[in-house]
Amino acid sequence: MHLLYLDESGSVTNKNDKYFVLAGISVFERQAHYIEQDLNSIAARFNPDSPHEIELHGSPMRSGKNSWRRFPKEMRHAALIDALRVIPGRTSRGVRLFGGVVKKSAIPDEDPVEHLFEQLCNRFDLFLRRLYTKHDDAQRGLILLDKSSTETRIQTLARDFKHTGHTWGRTRNYAEVPVFLDSQASRLIQLADLVAHAIYRHHEHQDSELFREIAGCFDQEGPTEHGYYLRC
Predict the structure, then answer these.
(1) The domain containing residue 84 runs over which residues?
(2) What's the whole-model pTM score?
(3) Cα separation, 180 vs 139, whole angstroms
(4) Beta carbons within 8 Å of 98's beta carbon, 6+ residues apart
(5) What are phi and psi of 111, to 5 degrees?
(6) Using CA atoms, how far apart are residues 17 and 90, in angstroms rounded to an integer?
(7) Phi, psi (degrees; rounded to nearest 5) at 96
(8) Which residues pair with 230 in a beta bridge?
(9) Quick one: pLDDT band at residue 149, thresholds 50, 70, 90?
(10) What are the pLDDT digits (tens) for 155-191?
(11) Residues 25 and 87: beta-carbon distance below 8 Å
(12) Half-sphere exposure of 209 (CA within 13 A, CB side)
């Protein structure tokens, strides 16, 4: 089974945010443990005795807010970079990124959350289908997201995509409706947050330092990049 961990960056309701991002990381189930270990070793720099108490969260790490205030900027920045560098090191083992970006003014009559979830839900489903049709690897998928106020809406959308259909047809390769997790308990949700944060900084602030670390890791088949969606 392939697990797609997703998180968002930017605000749907904040008029100061031009862009909204939904993005994350797809891993084969057995890879999740090893990625968690890599991230735990980074968190241990900040609390060697209890690394699980450290939540890797992009915006507070970059700005030094809340519990991150007591750590030097250089130390926080190095941890952000190193956490994202875990991804390129595992793409040969089936790790893929999926990301969606929308300029909110481009879809004034649509909900950015629903718009991007439909895109990524379809793209992840096509990735699973491609594994089977082109590589004879039959796998189911499961989407996991950070707990949020959109939980009920996204679960309803996922059911509709399976039974009624979405813009491009029906999803056929999911094991279950999306699962919502507390980000503090899941390193992979935290990594999805870092991915979304890197994409958001790239578009909203033209700050591409973090994005460059992951730019080549989105789902791709041959010359075609399937895992990255941009609507401006």
Answers:
(1) 2-231
(2) 0.93
(3) 21
(4) 4, 6, 23, 24, 25, 26, 120, 123, 124, 127, 218, 219, 227, 228
(5) -85, 120
(6) 32
(7) -135, 150
(8) 101
(9) low
(10) 777 777 777 767 767 778 888 888 888 898 999 999 9
(11) yes
(12) 8
Question: In sequence order, which ranges of the chain are alpha helices (DSSP H)?
Answer: 31-43, 58-63, 73-85, 112-135, 151-163, 187-204, 209-212
Domains in the chain, number: 1
Q: Does the pLDDT of residue 77 top 90, yes or no? A: yes
Helix, coil or strand: residue 77:
helix
* Burial bucket for residue 190 (CB in 10 Å: 0-12, 13-18, 19+): buried
In DSSP notation, 181-212 reads E-GGG-HHHHHHHHHHHHHHHHHHS---HHHH
Tokens, residue 200: 């958001």
Instruction: Say if residues 120 and 226 touch (Cβ distance below 8 Å).
Output: no
Neighbouring residues of 141: CB distance < 8 A, sequence distance ≥ 6: 1, 2, 3, 4, 26, 124, 125, 127, 128, 173, 174, 175
The CATH number linked to 149 is: 3.30.420.10
How confident is the model over 184-225, as pLDDT tens digits?
A: 899 999 999 999 999 999 999 999 999 999 999 999 988 899
Count Cβ neighbours within 10 Å for each residue of 43-69 and write b for 16 or more, e otherwise. Answer: beebeeeebeebbbbbbbbbeeeeebe
In this structure, the strands spanning 179-181 and 141-146 are: parallel
| 63's tokens | 């700005």
Local structure of 161: helix, strand or coil = helix
